[in-house]
Amino acid sequence: MKALVVFDLLYGNTQKIAEAVARGLKKTLEVDLRPVSRVSLADLKGIDILVVGSPTHGGRPTPAIQAFLDKLPDSSLAGIKVAAFDTRVLAEEQSFGLKILVKTLGYAAPKIAAALKAKGGQEVDSPTGFIVEGKEGPLKAGEVVRAEKWPVLRESR
Ligand SMILES: Cc1cc2nc3c(=O)[nH]c(=O)nc-3n(C[C@H](O)[C@H](O)[C@H](O)COP(=O)(O)O)c2cc1C
Fold it and tell me: Which atom in ligand 1 lies closest to the alpha carbon of residue 136?
């Protein structure tokens, strides 16, 4: 079985999570890890699993990840298992105003997951956020280890 892990980054934390996800999947699968700037529709050919991850910017995935999702043809993910993750700050640790903003805007992973499902993908694990301690990082302790165990490839829901 083949997996493709696509990610974007600004400061580098999302790449570290994507690398950890790829390491975990490599225990049982053949894995291709690609920054979104270097992925094309041809890379989807023959894959069984697609994982997409992005930093959360204004409650959404980055424009490059959004563009990648938008250009996936309708039904192109039929028969493909999908999972989405983001990196994000912890709302509770922000100042009052920012806390409200972060909570109101939401996060990238659920939006990525909805787009992947809209293109026919079968979600294998819940959209997941990995925590950075400030907007430039570092990742919160334990997040890389958590990423190595995600997604759990249970039967599609
Ligand atoms: C322009 C910008 C907007 C951001 N908006 C949010 C946000 O809405 N919610 C959130 O949790 N984090 C937000 N962040 C923090 C990012 O989640 C954090 O920078 C990112 O996870 C780090 O990943 P990277 O190192 O791969 O860039 C924002 C950061 C930037 C630079």
Answer: 19
